[in-house]
Write a structure and sequence with these properties.
- The chain has 440 residues and is of the alpha/beta class.
- Among the domains are: 154 residues, FAD/NAD(P)-binding domain, CATH 3.50.50.60; 129 residues, no CATH class.
- The strands form five sheets. Strands 7-8-6-16-17-18-15-19 form an eight-stranded mixed β-sheet. A five-stranded parallel β-sheet has the order 10-2-1-14-20. A three-stranded antiparallel β-sheet has the order 11-12-13, with no helix packed on it.
- The structure holds flavin-adenine dinucleotide.
- Flavin-adenine dinucleotide binds next to helix 1 and helix 12.
- Flavin-adenine dinucleotide (FAD) binds next to helix 1 and helix 12.
Length: 440
């Protein structure tokens, strides 16, 4: 393989050094003369981490890695020494109940929340109904009867119907409804099912019953076990992929024009652009006529943001804790301190606590005081774009925009380009697909 670049190589500008932009650079840097523009001062986008009092703070979520795509695994295996630089863990997640829903005294795990008890049922909840109190179990058995009778009648049309028809009214009421309403801040009837396909568990009633009889945890979803860097969390992944790349940090691109068949970015000429930022920003950035007709559609794309609160919490063995309680607004605690011992500087365990959209520091502190595991506030960050929301026509329309722009050597991929609920691996997979499709 050649190690030097030919001077007659085509020039390619990448906007964004999140995992998508970094994947483009790593896949194409032997073939093109590449320059990356990144508005932040470090690489990684959503997977960036910061150090707070020597503790590792994932500024959004708590990023772990795994993939079901062989080509994506090969991409990562070429770049990373998984055996030495990563820890392989099994997911240990649970749902915390606070209203006495759990009765099995042997298996339940109890946590003190101020003066009361909080009870954890392993995730996914539908496999562990045997741990819930007898009234709930009876009601769930009635639900199963109803589900089985109404089977094959019609397909669910929205998220609420999907959840009720697959898991029954009882689990919907005690878990799926309150938990998902905290995430989506909307009536679950309004969430169309089209874009959730493939991302949601689809267990059959037979599987749910079998798993309950045998106390089986679900091992089929992508993060049921995962890789996590020993040091520096997902920032390690970003830094490694950014090594030897030509990145201009603190360079927010505000305008992209086309003159004489060349793209002009920051007064430089490029043959090709690969955009891995946010499609909404293109409405202001991209100065070409063909794009005008899409602006209205793009303006109307919906999304949520996340306030990520970094805390010390009481010790526990969990990776993710799901919180259906309506006593506070947070839906999830990610015990990032349990992912690697290197993530905590002190004997305390650190975690990120998530709230949908923006909330003030005062509200955060009020919420934390009501939450289990005694969270002690360290810092927080708000990110405006974290969860894209699709409508029925979003996918088709974005495909059309991408195809039209690709005729002009303007390519795009990423969570907020495709407006898809991508994980890191799927974002890399989407970049690979775009490169292959367009023979770049
Ligand atoms: C709460 C949460 C938890 C998650 N947990 C996981 C997990 O555990 N595992 C997993 O695999 N995935 C997880 N994901 C998904 C993962 O974060 C994303 O799929 C991935 O980070 C998307 O990368 P991206 O490069 O497409 O976008 P981004 O990370 O958003 O990158 C876009 C980059 O472009 C830059 N940029 C934007 N506009 C401009 C401009 N005009 N000029 C210059 N630069 C610009 C931005 O600064 C940013 O660096 C999670 C996501 C969320 C929201």
């Amino acid at each position: 393989m050649e190690d030097f670049k030919h001077t007659n190589m085509k020039t390619l500008a990448i906007i964004g050094s999140g995992i998508s932009g970094l994947a483009v650079a790593n896949l194409l840097n032997k073939k093109y003369d590449i320059e990356i523009f990144e508005k932040e001062s470090t690489p990684g986008g959503l997977i960036r981490c910061k150090t707070i009092n020597d503790n590792l703070f994932h500024i959004c979520g708590g990023h772990v890695f795994n993939t079901k795509r062989e080509d994506v695994m090969n991409f990562f295996s070429e770049k990373f020494d998984f055996e030495n630089d990563f820890i392989k863990s099994e997911r240990n997640s649970c749902v915390f109940f606070e209203n006495g829903e759990v009765t099995n005294p042997v298996k339940r795990s109890l946590f003190v929340k101020n003066t009361s008890w909080v009870e954890g049922v392993p995730y996914p909840i539908e496999n562990h109904v045997h741990m819930l109190k007898p009234e709930i179990q009876h009601s769930f058995i009635n639900d199963i009867e109803k589900i089985t009778k109404s089977r094959h009648r019609r397909e669910p049309k929205n998220f609420e119907e999907f959840l009720k028809w697959n898991f029954g009214e009882t689990l919907y009421k005690i878990y799926f409804k309150p938990y998902n309403e905290k995430i989506w801040h909307t009536n679950l009837k309004k969430i169309p099912l089209s874009w959730l396909k493939g991302k949601l568990p689809m267990p059959s009633i037979e599987e749910i019953l079998y798993n309950n009889f045998n106390h089986i945890k679900d091992k089929t979803f992508v993060h049921s076990n995962f890789w996590y860097p020993k040091k520096n969390g997902s920032q390690f992944i970003a830094n490694k992929l950014a090594e030897n790349q030509n990145i201009n940090f603190n360079s927010e691109i505000k305008e992209i024009k086309k003159i004489n068949n060349k793209w002009i970015i920051n007064n430089k000429k490029f043959d090709i652009v690969f955009f891995c930022g946010n499609i909404k920003d293109l409405n202001n950035i991209l100065q070409i006529e063909e794009f005008e007709k899409y602006k209205n559609f793009i303006n109307n794309l919906e999304y949520h943001g996340t306030t990520t609160v970094f805390c010390e919490i009481d010790k526990n063995s969990y990776s993710w804790i799901y919180l259906p309680s309506t006593n506070y607004q947070s839906h999830r605690i990610i015990c990032t301190g349990n992912f690697s011992p290197e993530n905590n500087n002190t004997k305390q365990l650190t975690a990120t606590i998530e709230f949908t959209d923006q909330i003030s520091e005062e509200e955060i502190l009020q919420n934390l005081s009501k939450m289990p595991l005694h969270p002690r506030y360290l810092t927080h960050e708000y990110h405006k774009y974290t969860y894209p929301i699709q409508n029925n026509d979003t996918r088709e329309k974005i495909k059309e925009i991408k195809e039209e722009l690709s005729q002009q050597q303007f390519y795009m991929s990423g969570r907020f380009v495709d407006w898809e609920y991508y994980n890191m691996d799927i974002a890399v997979g989407a970049v690979k697909d775009t490169i292959e499709k367009n023979k770049l």
